Amino acid sequence: MFKLRSIAARLILAISLTVAVACAILGTFSILQQRSLTRLALEQQLKLQYDSVIAALDYEGRAALAVSAVIAALPPVGDAIAKGDREGLMGLLGGAMKALTAQGIPLITFQTPPAVAFFRVHAPKVFGDDVSARRSTVVEANKTGKSIVGVEAGRELLSIFGMTPIMRAGKSLATADVGAAFGKEFVDRAKLRLGVDLAVHWFDGKAFTKLSSTFGDTVVATQDELKSVFNGAALHREANFGGHPAALYVGQVKNYAGQPVAVIEVIKDTTEYEAAATRAQRDLLLGTLAILAGAVLLAFLLGRGLSRRWPRSPR
User: Fold this and answer.
1) What angle do CA 233, 260, 226 make, to 5 degrees?
2) CATH number 3.30.450.40 is the correct assignment for the domain at 34-57+184-273
3) pLDDT per residue over 65-86, tens digit each?
4) Which of 245, 205, 221 is CA-nearest to residue 50?
5) d(CA 80, CA 93)
6) What fold is seen in the domain 59-181?
């Protein structure tokens, strides 16, 4: 059996093993701590990005409300509705409709109480339908005479609507209802401002429909994950996006009443984060090896000095 007889060899081995174990423990802890802090930082950043998207959504709503307030305040608009003059409304607002559509606000509708579509500037041949089943905000605006902003289902898409009642003799004659859809323009503008990819998913009661996305038909969050977020808390996890490591955050979109109507999927490429983590781990390994080498050298010098002072006794 192999035995270490010299003091130098024993000292070198003892110090080397002690330093190696200490470095391994500290290195492992450092790596785990670094990973944990990186995940926390990414989660916080994605939550901020999600909040920024919701803030952008609120901004779209305020813009729609401002337009509706201006339209509702135009006396010829109220006069045309009172007369039932749809052609007159088209003459007044047809040009404005084109300009607003170019700005991402493609919907202008007038609804008489409780919520009957009197005229759609963007679809003049479609009128007379009762939208109260899907547009509770219109019913409330006509009933209370108050302006309202909220996310609701439009005739074709989920949209953010801003509506202002047109008041006559203390009662609502109709609402000037202006909407900005969750279309490609919305997600593209959000990506340009925030530097993340995102998608909007609308739940129709049975399954989720992707309304708009900056990454086409690529699937990142599953239907089960979308449903889980729709029914409860937000989701954050690691993902693979376009062959690159990524972080995924999914949160709710709520309507005027505070109920979820859709979910927003936010994705951030974490390639740079992974590269930084790899460099940090490499630097940590090199540092550990340098410490270990220094410890071995120190042990060797100490052992050599001890061997000279106390030479091994002869047998």
Assistant:
1) 55
2) yes
3) 999 999 999 999 999 999 999 9
4) 221
5) 11
6) Beta-Lactamase (3.30.450)
